[in-house]
Specification:
Layout (H helix, E strand, L loop, with lengths): L1 H24 L1 E6 L4 H14 L4 E5 L3 H9 L5 E4 L5 H9 L4 E15 L7 E2 L1 H9 L16 E5 L4 H11 L9 E3 L2 H9 L4 E6 L7 E2 L1 E2 L6 H5 L6 E9 L7 H6 L5 H9 L7
Parallel strand pairs: 1-2, 1-3, 5-10, 6-7, 6-8
Antiparallel strand pairs: 3-11, 4-8, 4-9, 4-11
Length: 273
């Protein structure tokens, strides 16, 4: 009798464990970039509509925090608007995590100003001088006599790190700059501040004026052909390569499907070729 009870208990425990495993496989946690966030949310909505048994939650804590979440096993997918750093990969390796990079879309970082600002074009050199504090007034650029209000992404942001690499080339941003924790926050600040300048992903230029950079407009075409100078890929990282046919595999590979590319375009980003 005791033996029978033990067998029943063991079977019940196995059933509970199987149920937990199944629930885990059908629950996907996404965390990271505020830039990639709209794509991840749109992918999640589309996928959950097709698969009501799958739950996908998306948080936007920044690319750096997304990497930390993946390393700490707090998420299944780290969305990042920059490649994972060597130091992050080392931390992942130490934690027994194997980060696999999946490109889901392309992006152009737009330089934005208030719609009433007469500026039309800036060179990379001029942008760098603005953000390092060498150029302080719009009159130095042929504009009105107004001090430039400099808005930057927070330093944990992948957008900040791309901007730092491609524009500042390692130079430090002036202490007078303001920092915002999302693309949307920068856009709102620029929309309400005639003398402001900021930088955001291509999907966040509605309501503001996007300047040409080196006389090249930010657009799907110029990002794809490589002419726009501040462009980048957008990523979803996983711990190892998901098994084909699983919800996680299907989710991170949506960017390579016709419907996924349509979603990327509809969210304002640049779909993969």
């Amino acid at each position: 009798m005791n033996r029978t009870r033990k067998m029943v208990a063991a079977l019940a425990l196995a059933g509970v464990c199987a149920g937990i495993a199944q629930a885990g496989g059908n629950a996907i946690v996404v965390d990271g970039s505020t830039t990639v966030g709209p794509i991840a949310k749109a992918f999640a909505g589309y996928y959950m509509k097709l698969h009501p048994d799958v739950t996908i939650t998306v948080s936007e804590s920044g690319s750096g925090n997304g990497a930390k979440s993946l390393i700490n096993a707090a998420c299944d997918v780290a969305t990042m608007s920059r490649p994972m750093k060597a130091s992050e990969k080392k931390s992942a390796q130490d934690a027994g995590v194997l980060p696999i990079e999946n490109t889901v879309a392309l992006d152009g970082i737009a330089m934005i100003v208030h719609p009433q600002n007469p500026a039309k074009n800036l060179t990379i050199e001029q942008i760098a001088k603005i953000y390092t504090g060498e150029i302080r007034n719009w009159k130095e650029l042929g504009g009105p006599d107004q001090a430039i209000v400099i808005i930057s992404r927070d330093t944990n942001s992948g957008t900040y790190e791309t901007f730092e690499t491609k524009v500042l080339e390692g130079k430090k941003i002036t202490p007078k700059a303001e920092y915002a924790n999302s693309n949307g926050a920068i856009r709102q600040r620029v929309m309400s501040t005639p003398a402001a300048i900021g930088y955001v992903g291509i999907a966040f230029i509605e309501g503001v004026k996007a300047l040409t950079v080196n006389d090249v407009p930010v657009s799907i075409e110029t990002v794809l052909n490589g002419k726009y100078p501040i462009a980048r890929p957008l990523f979803m990282y996983t711990n190892g390569r998901p098994q084909q046919g699983t919800p996680l595999y299907d989710f991170i590979n949506l960017g390579n499907t016709a419907e996924g590319k349509k979603i990327v375009t509809e969210t304002g980003f640049v779909a993969l070729k």
